[in-house]
Specification:
Shape of chain B: rod-shaped
Largest sheet of chain B: 7 strands, mixed
Strand content of chain B: 25-35%
Distance between the termini of chain A: 97 Å
Radius of gyration of chain B: 46 Å
Oligomer: heterodimer
CATH superfamily of chain A: Macroglobulin (MG2) domain
Strand content of chain A: over 45%
CATH architecture of chain A: Sandwich
CATH class of the largest domain in chain B: Alpha Beta
Distance between the termini of chain B: 96 Å
CATH superfamily of the largest domain in chain B: DNA integrity scanning protein, DisA, N-terminal domain
Largest interface: A-B, 24 and 27 residues
CATH class of chain A: Mainly Beta
CATH architecture of the largest domain in chain B: 3-Layer(aba) Sandwich
Number of domains of chain B: 4
Order of helices and strands of chain A: HHEEEEEEEEE
Mean pLDDT of chain A: 81
Strand order of the largest sheet of chain A: 3-9-8-5-6
CATH topology of the largest domain in chain B: YojJ-like (1
Structural class of chain B: alpha+beta
Low-confidence stretches of chain A: 18-33
């Protein structure tokens, strides 16, 4: 092997090495490349309502009469890129009452859950809207009164 | 052999010291009280105790109970009846003699000097009365007397009985090489067979000899005769050498000196060995017998708790211990003497399970632990923390039906609470006191106090009130909502 051949081989080796270490595949495997998972949606608003009519929320409020029999929690989203689950966690005085799993899938960009009201369950309530990994998207507080 | 090895290996240094101290005390009691009536009664009590143990072993209920009663009564009798004897033993000795040495080792009485002095008094027709005490204490029988405590010389004896001497009429008491008392009054004999020429001095001589083991010598003032009394025997002494021999026999010198001291040495050694064996026997019966059971409820003492760590809950605060030991020891055990200690040095926040072993229990010596109930204790430990939580209004009552409470804003919206971590970690909201809706007709502002759930508290320096701004809207007219 003459000098020119050795020179070409060395150049080829350096080019290959540079290519391998600069590869984006390697960067993605490293820890520094990891970040919080990007949610496939953006929540725009969430509120508790007296009732729903034809799938539309009616009368947002902070206090509900137990005579209404039910309350509704609506969450509105945009840019829903893929199927995802959102949870409505209902609490009465910090005690979990229900955890409702809701499917969010385009073109359905609003979801809701409801909670039947009983005379014995008057008092302060809250609904935590969370993502699939438990991340809190919104906390809604209201009271059930006479 | 193996049992002996196990027994010896189980001995603590405290046990050895315990036996040694009590053996020595018993031995010293023997040395101090030997020959006294107290000692004889004490021997009797020891014998009774021995028989009581045998009766207990054989299961003789009434016999053991009876002996126990007699023993207890005898102990009191000793103190009451022989109080003077006991007192004299301790009064006549100094502390060193009580604790060490042989207090009975008396100086040799100069009997030749005394005999010579008495025969000189006899020749001079001078009356004399001399008492040589034996083993018995004469405190109860001799009255009066002046403490003399003078070293015996011929001249001194003659001086004491010199006619013009105020104490010449009484008796002299000789101890060792000293005249202890002079002018003593002795009990008179009431015997009818005494010679008619015997006066008061001779009757006193006979009287003391009858009631004690003392040897008493009298010199007659009228005839100059020398008479010796011992027990009920009274015999005249013609020659000085005879008196010397009689007194030397009494002292145990010359004829029996060597035998006496040799015997004394053996007796003391035997007493030391017996004291040791007796106390060892008592110690073994007290500490090694495990025939009695007792169950005690003992509270747990928590120790070594880290600063800030608090005990929230325990599965047991009182532990039941079953103990065994000899009846005498078990009867004296009280709950205060038994401790259950739990070291919380390694306790973590949350539930900690501790297995109770004998290491956690401290017992009086000689008591054995049989059972621990419950054998384990769960302790929930916690530490105080501060956490920020949201504030929420606790609305009550009824809002007018034509109104909707559409929005509520709080200032502050969150407050810091302090409390134990496990409780506070479960807490996400602090509520206000109840706020009435009935009077609300339009938007407005209310101040309400916060009411954190006990035992949680607002962090120091924080206001306990919250400003509630609320917006009330008229309820929109109802539309037909048959679908809702």
């Amino acid at each position: 092997m003459d000098f020119r051949q050795i020179q070409i081989a060395l150049m080829f080796f350096f080019a290959l090495t540079t290519l391998v270490f600069a590869s984006p595949t390697r960067a993605q495997n490293g820890k520094e490349a990891e970040g919080p998972p990007v949610k496939p949606y953006v929540m725009t608003s969430s509120a508790v309502y007296e009732k729903q009519r034809n799938g539309q929320p009616v009368n947002p409020a902070a206090v509900f009469s137990v005579s209404n029999k039910k309350v509704y929690c609506f969450s509105h989203f945009q840019d829903v890129r893929s199927k995802a689950y959102v949870f409505h966690n209902w609490f009465r005085r910090d005690v979990s009452v229900a955890k409702i799993k809701l499917l969010l899938q385009a073109p359905k960009w609003s979801i809701y859950s409801s909670m039947p009201l009983r005379e014995t369950e008057k008092g302060p309530w809250r609904v935590e809207v969370t993502g699939e990994n438990g991340e809190i998207l919104s906390v809604l507080r209201f009271s059930i009164v006479d | 052999m193996n049992d002996i090895r196990i027994f010896l290996s189980s001995l603590r240094w405290q046990d050895v010291l315990d036996i040694a101290i009590n053996s020595y005390i018993l031995f010293r009691l023997y040395v101090l009280f030997r020959g006294t009536n107290t000692f004889r009664v004490m021997l009797g009590i020891a014998g009774l105790w021995f028989f009581q143990q045998i009766a207990i072993y054989l299961g003789l209920i009434v016999t053991s109970w009876l002996i126990q009663g007699i023993t207890a009564a005898a102990a009191i009798i000793i103190i009451v009846i022989f109080r003077n004897e006991i007192r004299s033993v301790f009064q006549t000795q100094n502390l060193r003699s009580v604790l060490w040495g042989n207090p009975r080792q008396t100086k040799e009485t100069p009997v030749a000097v005394i005999a010579e002095a008495l025969f000189e008094l006899s020749a001079a027709r001078t009356g004399a009365l001399v008492v040589f005490p034996g083993r018995e204490n004469l405190t109860e029988v001799i009255q009066g007397g002046v403490v003399w405590h003078g070293k015996i010389t011929k001249e001194m004896i003659r001086t004491i009985f010199f006619r013009n001497n105020p104490v010449h009429d009484g008796a002299v008491v000789i101890h060792g090489n000293r005249v202890e008392l002079v002018g003593c009054i002795l009990p008179l004999s009431h015997r009818k067979d005494l010679p008619s020429h015997y006066g008061t001095r001779h009757r006193a001589m006979a009287g003391l000899a009858e009631v004690s083991d003392a040897v008493v010598v009298a010199v007659s003032e009228e005839s100059g005769s020398v008479t010796v009394a011992k027990g009920n025997a009274i015999y005249p002494v013609k020659q000085r050498q005879d008196l010397v021999r009689i007194l030397e026999e009494r002292e145990g010198i010359k004829y029996k000196a060597e035998t006496f001291f040799q015997r004394e040495k053996y007796m003391r050694r035997a007493a030391a060995v017996l004291s040791f064996l007796f106390i060892t026997g008592v110690w073994v019966s007290f500490t090694r017998s495990m025939d009695t059971l007792i169950t005690l409820d003992v509270p747990i003492r928590y120790s070594n708790r880290r600063p800030g760590v608090e005990i929230v809950e325990t599965t047991a605060n009182i532990i039941q211990l079953q103990l065994s030991g000899s009846g005498a020891l078990i009867r004296s055990v009280s709950a205060e003497q038994v401790q259950v200690n739990l070291d919380l040095g390694k306790a973590v926040v949350g539930k900690n399970t501790f297995l109770l072993t004998s290491d956690n229990i401290s017992l009086p010596p000689g008591i054995k632990l049989n059972r621990i109930d419950p054998p384990k204790v769960d302790v929930v430990a916690d530490i105080p923390i501060i956490k920020e939580v949201a504030v929420q209004v606790d609305w009550v009552g009824r809002l007018r039906e034509d109104l909707i409470l559409s929005q509520v804003n709080l200032l502050p919206a969150a407050v810091r609470l302090s409390g134990l971590s496990m409780l506070l970690n479960e807490c996400e909201t602090v509520y206000t006191e109840k706020v009435l809706l009935d009077n609300i007709s339009e938007s407005g502002e209310i101040i309400a106090k916060l009411a954190p759930e006990s035992p949680l508290q607002l962090a120091p320096g924080r206001s306990d009130s919250v400003r509630i701004r609320f917006i009330v809207k008229p309820r929109p007219p109802e539309v037909d909502d048959s679908s809702s």
